[in-house]
């Protein structure tokens, strides 16, 4: 059983689920918590996946505790009904924690996709770092994207034979989507055909809210100084994020605020952008696969291999630092080429196949062991 419920999980798990569903010797059940409703539905439609169980738990302004408690109860009911051999979760969301913990309570093995991401600060990012560490303690099969992730798990005394370095399935999804012919609709069509260099921007981290003034002030300065630059900014639905934008970001004809976008549209925006400025986690892995430099509006990252490879650069939220790093990439071709040409350390598009192969091998081994004991 694959359990996920947010848009990022859907993007990264869709290729894995489709690969498992294509195997004749496994039945793959998909449970959707609908922690994100509309945004995840768009992803499922794009990848042509339908849930076997839809908990429809998204409600306006519910607290994380309310959401998690509902998930635990409802996921447990489905597990009691279906009794899967393995529960597969992804990443670090409330759905991830609830799915893994519900499976643990029924002594069902857990497979954790994108295991081993660590900042070592349980409050950054919050609550994702705590979720991923907690899930790591009750996971049986750890599907790590990189050697760095594997080493983090080994430091936590995870058995090496239970860790598999497979790359990140988000690259599978990204390459599948961006390989297709695509045309933007208005207003993005006119925006992307303007001839201006596009900074694709996202900010939504809860822990960054109080510091966004510095980020937006730096953007204001860049737009004043560079008339050939425009911002495309899909704005998170969180009212607190929108309040900060309204207070601190100067709007003009080159500041394009748009509603959250379908994954297909966003993927092609990444492909066409000049550079990307974000505090998102997944984008740090995706954009380098398309040869795009990424400036990260955070002081630390659970993806240090991207920094080491040169595809990412941490710039925090201080106005002077953000301005300096943006200015460097806009005015220094050598610096831009160095980042855009760096090798992406997060995978080659075959992660889903590797995960499915490992799962099938483990299930066959466990079945054989049970039959041996019985005989």
TrEMBL record:
The keyword Isomerase applies. Its EC number is 5.1.3.14. It holds the Pfam family Epimerase_2. Keywords: Isomerase. Residues 18-359 form the UDP-N-acetylglucosamine 2-epimerase domain. It comes from the Bacteria. InterPro entries: UDP_GlcNAc_Epimerase_2_dom (IPR003331), WecB-like (IPR029767). Coiled coil: none annotated. The keyword Isomerase applies. GO terms for molecular function: UDP-N-acetylglucosamine 2-epimerase activity. SUPFAM superfamilies: UDP-Glycosyltransferase/glycogen phosphorylase (SSF53756). Gene3D superfamilies: Glycogen Phosphorylase B (3.40.50.2000). Belongs to the UDP-N-acetylglucosamine 2-epimerase family. NCBIfam families: wecB. This is UDP-N-acetylglucosamine 2-epimerase (non-hydrolyzing).
């Amino acid at each position: 059983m694959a359990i996920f419920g947010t848009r990022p999980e859907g993007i990264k798990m869709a290729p894995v689920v489709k690969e498992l569903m294509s195997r004749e010797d496994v039945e793959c059940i998909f449970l959707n918590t609908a922690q994100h409703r509309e945004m995840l539905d768009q992803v499922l439609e794009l990848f042509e996946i339908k849930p076997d169980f839809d908990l429809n738990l998204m409600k306006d302004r519910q607290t994380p505790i309310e959401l998690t408690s509902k998930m635990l109860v409802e996921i447990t009911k489905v597990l009691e009904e279906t009794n899967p051999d393995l529960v597969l979760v992804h990443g670090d969301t409330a759905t991830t924690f609830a799915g893994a913990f519900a499976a643990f309570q029924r002594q069902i093995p857990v497979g954790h996709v994108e295991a081993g991401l660590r900042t070592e600060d349980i409050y950054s990012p919050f609550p994702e770092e705590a979720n991923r560490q907690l899930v790591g303690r009750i996971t049986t099969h750890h599907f790590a994207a990189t050697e760095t992730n594997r080493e983090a798990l080994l430091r936590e005394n995870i058995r090496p034979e239970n860790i598999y370095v497979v790359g990140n399935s988000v690259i599978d999804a990204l390459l599948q989507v961006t390989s297709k012919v695509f045309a933007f609709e208005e207003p993005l069509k006119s925006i992307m055909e303007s001839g201006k260099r596009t900074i694709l921007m996202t900010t939504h981290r809860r822990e960054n809210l109080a510091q966004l003034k510095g980020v937006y002030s730096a953007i204001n300065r860049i737009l004043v100084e560079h008339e050939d630059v425009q911002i495309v900014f899909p704005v998170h639905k969180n009212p607190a994020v929108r309040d900060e934008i309204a207070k601190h970001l100067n709007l003009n004809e080159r500041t394009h605020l748009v509603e959250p976008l379908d994954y297909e549209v966003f993927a092609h925006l990444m492909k066409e952008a000049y550079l990307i400025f974000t505090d998102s986690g997944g984008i740090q892995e995706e954009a380098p696969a398309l040869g795009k430099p990424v400036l990260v509006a955070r002081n630390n990252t659970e993806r240090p291999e991207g920094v080491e490879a040169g595809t990412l650069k941490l710039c925090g939220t201080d106005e002077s630092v953000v301005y300096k790093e943006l200015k460097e990439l806009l005015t220094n071709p050598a610096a831009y080429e160095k980042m855009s040409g760096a090798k992406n350390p997060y995978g080659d598009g075959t992660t889903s196949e590797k995960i499915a192969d490992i799962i099938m091998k483990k299930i066959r081994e466990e079945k054989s062991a049970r039959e041996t004991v019985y005989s």
